[in-house]
Amino acid sequence: MIPSITIVRMTGARDRAELPLLVLGPSLGTSAATLWTASAAGLTDVFDVVAWDLPGHGHNRSVPEEPFTMGELAAGVLRVVDDVLTQRGQPRGPFFYAGDSVGGAVGLQLMLDAPDRVVAAGLLCTGAQIATPDSWTERIGKVSASGTPVMVSASAERWFGPGFAEREPARASALLHALSDAVDEGYVQVCGALAAYDVRDQLSRVAAPVLAVAGSADVATPPDKLREIADGVQDGTYVELDGVAHLAPAEAPEEVARLLRQHFLGEEPPREESPGMTVRREVLGDAHVDRAVAGTTDFTRDFQELITAYAWGEIWTRPGLDRRSRSMITLTALIARGHHEELAMHVRAALRNGLTVDEIKEVILQSAIYCGVPDANTAFRIASGVLREEGLL
């Protein structure tokens, strides 16, 4: 039974046929939009990007009456991809593919069943076999009895790496909502296809270049599953994303987009930077950080690495406070200690972190009472200069 698949377009309205086609596949319980939108934003300038929804998921409310296999699911995906290619004037043409979890399994199946169609593939947080038949049977029983909402709590723990839900609450909520909104029968049928899926002994037949991307915190498809794919296919590359769990396109969208561009198009990767440097840039801005890096000497290098690793990599990345709150605390501390050289820098950072002019004023007024009027007077002078430079006063 070949199921009906729904295509979701991720590219804008311009002439899509000018760009190579990239097809994105979802994870069980997610929709194409909730899983891939953030990552696709970094791909649509070089690809015509489409994604697809599983039966009973996202925009696809159709659920076949009979069970289907992974091969039949892949055939359903290929059928709608052929429709897209025909619209582009390229019937039965080649395409690039990337998929997460069951979407990655479909990618493997496509390369086995239609080896002349997939140019290259990115397989994320997946496996040549996923979990065990008994575990899928147990999950089928739970969802059949209580519906997909029964899976939300466990999925919230399994899907996301440490701190992701606190850093990106809207994205995490949208993913979990997509799970609870999935049609029970569709979810169950995908579980059934996964229970019978095992292509470990066929990996050597896969000739297209494969990028296997693992999440270091993924318990559903641990890194060994992706190493097995990279080692088993004819042309495989393995990459592991630190702190990422099962939904890499949503958890690390920029990094996933970068890896896919590099794998598919051979783009040179940008300079690797530590997580602390990334946060430092996000809070202080590229211009400030580039000046600091350019001004680093052998004498100051160890200090720059220290503050990047501990101030930005350890403190500013902790989930207990959002960045707005951390900016308020930092402004107060700088006023209290009279660190005027850094105050202007952190007024700009506060604006970047979402504080309004009125909120900055209130922080300084609060500091006048608890830190001292002269300190607040100097702070108002420095902050006024920054706000005038930014065109806010």
Would you mind describing this structure in some detail?
With 393 residues, this protein is an alpha/beta fold. The protein has two domains: 6-265, Alpha/Beta hydrolase fold, catalytic domain (Rossmann fold, 3-Layer(aba) Sandwich); 275-389, AhpD-like, CATH 1.20.1290. The chain has helices at residues 32-40, 70-87, 102-113, 133-146, 152-159, 164-167, 169-181, 184-195, 223-232, 248-251, 253-265, 275-284, 286-294, 301-315, 323-337, 340-352, 357-370, 373-389, and strands spanning 6-9, 21-25, 48-53, 95-100, 118-124, 210-215, 236-241. The protein has a seven-stranded mixed β-sheet with strand order 1-3-2-4-5-6-7, with helices on both faces. Strand 6 (210-215), helix 9 (223-232) and strand 7 (236-241) form a beta-alpha-beta unit. Helix 16 (340-352) crosses helix 18. The longest helix has 18 residues, at 70-87. The chain is elongated, with a radius of gyration of 25 Å. The chain starts with 5 loop residues before the first strand and ends with a helix.
Instruction: State the total count of DSSP E strands.
Output: 7
Cα-atom Rg, whole angstroms? 25 Å
Number of helices: 18
- Biggest sheet: strands side by side, in what order? 1-3-2-4-5-6-7
SSE string, helix = H, strand = E? EEHEHEHEHHHHHEHEHHHHHHHHH
Shape: elongated
* The CATH C-level class name of the largest domain: Alpha Beta
The H-level CATH homologous superfamily of the largest domain, spelled out, is Alpha/Beta hydrolase fold, catalytic domain
Helix content: 40-55%
**Straight-line distance between termini:** 66 Å
Strand content: 5-15%
CATH topology of the largest domain: Rossmann fold
